[in-house]
Amino acid sequence: MDIKEIIAEMHNQxxxxxxxxxxxxxxYLSGFKPSNSSILVLKDDPVLFTxxxxxxxxxxxxxxxxxxxxxxxxxxxxxxxxxxIENSLPVSTYKKICNDFETKLTDVVEFSRxxxxxxxxxxxxxxxxIAETSLMNIEISGTENNVAAELExxxxxxxxxxxxxxxxxxxxxxxxxxxxxxSPNNVEYPVVIDWGAxxxxxxxxxxxxxxxxxxxxxxxxxxxxxxxxxxxxxxxxIKASYVDKVARKVIEDYGYGKYFIHSTGxxxxxxxxxxxxxxxxxxxxxxxxxxxxxxxxxxxxxEFGVRIEDVVHIKKKAVLLNKIxxxxxx
Length: 330
Prior knowledge:
Elements: H1 3-12, E1 17-20, H2 23-30, E2 38-42, E3 47-50, H3 55-61, E4 65-68, H4 72-78, E5 83-85, H5 91-97, E6 103-105, H6 108-113, H7 118-136, H8 144-158, E7 168-171, E8 191-195, E9 198-199, E10 202-203, E11 206-210, H9 214-233, H10 240-253, E12 265-267, E13 274-278, E14 291-294, E15 297-300, E16 304-307, E17 310-314, E18 318-320
Parallel strand pairs: 1-5, 3-4, 5-6
Antiparallel strand pairs: 1-2, 2-3, 7-8, 8-11, 9-10, 12-13, 14-17, 15-16, 17-18
């Protein structure tokens, strides 16, 4: 969405100016990714305030007028009327800037970010390609720590700014922990690999599970079936909760419903987790242009876990953006 359209939507919500501190929202609106203190005041004539250390980068990258952030008093002078604030605005900043204004919580920028432009989709595709190439060029052996380090190193060599999140290499019994951190343990089967790259500030997020035993292979096929059925029903107008319901039913029908302990997926873009959430509680409808992950899983405590995650772009139906095989071997 064009910044003018966002400002128009602000006016529809009777918001005259909007304070933005969230780095991803600043990046989305200005093109500049702050690493230090920056505040964007969004109004008919928006201004980006940033620290002296980042002025040169901001001036080169920002599509919005840039001024040096010297004090919050200067920011306050730019505000007028009803001031919109993000849900993530720190209380301390709110007290310093907003006490004298009527305020209104809004997620107008987050809602705009839900629909991805062709540029954004291409950046996500590139991040996926970097991540997939990096995985296929390493050996999944040694310790979990070593595998994660080599994978992240390869992603940087391939052009990733940084890992999109802390890489998960969870093997053996630890694979039953959905967000396990890496350990010094030697890799054993099954191996859950959840990793992502960042390209032009846009993230990828993929999971593959390497299995060995007959039971592990059986669970893998159930999870894969759940993912395929969920992807089949994805199209504009379908509720996010329905996609979760479809995936969950497959797993429940095989008797493993209680072992599927998270939602089926989430939006992806400048952040790894964005709206919508493919969960039982999200009644929002999917729209053409969204980019989402689909990641059912089964986690049997003290035994093992399996998760398969791919990224899809919603057009008339779901278009799979990943190229790497579902089943990978050493």
